Amino acid sequence: MTSSALSRLSNLHSHLHPYDSDSKVARFLKVSPEVSQALSCGKAVVALESTIISHGMPYPQNLKTAKEVEEIVRKNGAVPATIAILDGIPCIGLSTEELERLATLGTRAQKTARRDIAHIVAMKGNGATTVSATMFFASMVGISVFVTGGIGGVHRHGEHTMDVSSDLTELGRTPVAVISAGVKSILDIPRTLEYLETQGVCVTSYKSNEFPAFFTETSGCKAPCRVDSPEECALLIDATMKLKLGTGILIAVPIPKEHSASGNSIESAIQRALGEARDKNISGNAETPFLLARVNELTGGASLASNIALVKNNADVGAKIAVALARLREHSDKGAYDQISIIWESAPEPTFLHQFQPGARVHRVARFESQEDQSRLNTSPASQVVQKLQLTPELQNVTGNLSTCLFGTNSLSNARWQRMIVKG
Length: 424
What we know:
Strand content: 5-15%
Radius of gyration: 23 Å
Structural class: alpha/beta
Distance between the termini: 11 Å
Shape: globular
Largest sheet: 11 strands, mixed
């Protein structure tokens, strides 16, 4: 079973009816037209975080980098979906104007993890999403691939401070594949990998046997798994979704050799920055931005240049993975034999009686034209009823006629479908 067809059907319903009783949370979201169209058609979409824009580098370099990263995603055949909260509205996919606004806001936009989402939405504030918040929103709208620079983790001396990033717990409960250059090297990488194991997260390195350390290709830690192509990554993601493990995947992509900073010089700068952070009592979510900025100063800008290079490389790899996953799901849909039966009743808008589960597939769609058809459904197996009904040609192309399938008409104002029952 695959997640493509029915997830697209459910996504389209949510986009067209954001205030439907079965998708009340959608009223808090704003999905860009480009992202909405891509999701409803099963095209490749790549989620992107926004903290790197607001807190990662100064304006206008942050805006330039954000645009370049989105362009890399597009050139590889995927649609970028940068995620942020603007004026209390979570936005999935930003316009050029919204990107520029976020870039100029800079650190005035609150660094937003999962715990901060409700408060920023309630107060109509501006939030730049971290890995955990971006994963949350990506999963909510059905985006399976998310690209970032590096994830958070267990901070050094975390056994005393209990400072552990919410990125790790999010990976343990949100089914999104995160493409990163590993764990930020300012953190405790061995303990972070141990914590991810406890959370049941599949951690794999891309074309390497060793787990990368953000600025450098190696960390001294062996990677639990290895994948060597976008297609293998897609198979891993697809298997995770089919098995309904409910956990994320961390795909660690080593920084390209030509951009890898000297491990010794970076480590020396990190140790010095850590000492300064302790002296200044900088902790919590303020620590990572401080450390990255200070390490950049101490390395004469070399670490920031490496950071930008690895993010672009991750975007390139992540987009290829998203495209491979979309192709895999499209191929898997062919030859499926599940059926959707649509029951006609007089009603102002559709209501789902069956909760769509990831993994269901669609082969044919039948339209019920009368109350007699509905009564037959109550006394006959769905498969028998479907065989007795006419399969209209325009309904056989599920992905091309989702509006017709959902509403019985291309005109939403005349929509009168009420119930959809999935039977296989």
